[in-house]
Amino acid sequence: MFKKAELIRFPLRLGEDAFLKGYITEDTIRKLIKVMQAFRHLIDAYEVISFRVCATSAMREASNRKEVLDRVTAESGISIEVIEGRVEAEIIYSNHIAEDLDPNQSYMYIDVGGGSTELTLFSKGRLVSAGSYNIGTIRMLHEKISKDQWRDFKEQVKKLAEGNQPLVAIGSGGNINKIFKLANRKENQYLSYIKFKECYDYVNSFDLEQRIRDLKLNPDRADVIIPAFKIFNAVMKSAQIEKLMVPQVGLSDGIIHLLYEDFRRNQVIAAI
After folding, report:
1. pTM: predicted TM-score of the whole model, two decimal places
2. Angle 9-215-35 (CA atoms, 0-180°, nearest 5)?
3. What are phi and psi of 127, to 5 degrees?
4. Which domains does the chain show, CATH number per domain?
5. Residue 229 phi, psi dihedral angles, 5° rounding
6. 118 vs 108: CA distance, rounded Å
């Protein structure tokens, strides 16, 4: 029904401020404003009829959140919506992936971000639960996850999976997309847990510089891909998941789906 015209990614790393210092620094605020101004120009140039801008875990925790949001709105004309973890999980679920899957199978949707991991469980085409956990790649990279938090996370995943097995994992986010490619998987193929572990061991055998030079990873991907591996591994192991599929859709795609559904709904109302 629609396709992407552009995909522009700019690594701001708000989490490195929010998770380490508790607030967004002035340098990062200025950079954020410049990025939002750039998107404002693109929105105007493409004559976009509807858009939604969402902030997740980092902005949820920043003590100066209101100041940052007010300045961005004043200087770019863009209003940023800070969404709670459960809403983030529900937006991801709105991609309607379940409609194209085996109705008799249970699935766990795993979205790993810098500050949080969203887990959505659906079985027989029905949403069972959607939750957000403060376990993310940036937090792990900077050792901001305690042993107790890590243990509790795995215990919660285990309880979530009980009674819904066997489960198939659906991964989303930039890191798992890259892992999928590194494992030489193609679209519509599954990545087995055994192959996932082999890929993990392979990538982990390279240091940061080698991952950038030899594996051709962007610097902002090369440092967080190992934490991402560890989070996906923890979920799959705790839930006893043997295979993973990666449809390469995530939060941004869910936002697009919801905007499109609103657009079509308003068209119908206008016609009536």
Report:
1. 0.82
2. 15
3. -70, 120
4. 14-82 (3.30.420.40), 88-252 (3.30.420.150)
5. -55, -45
6. 10
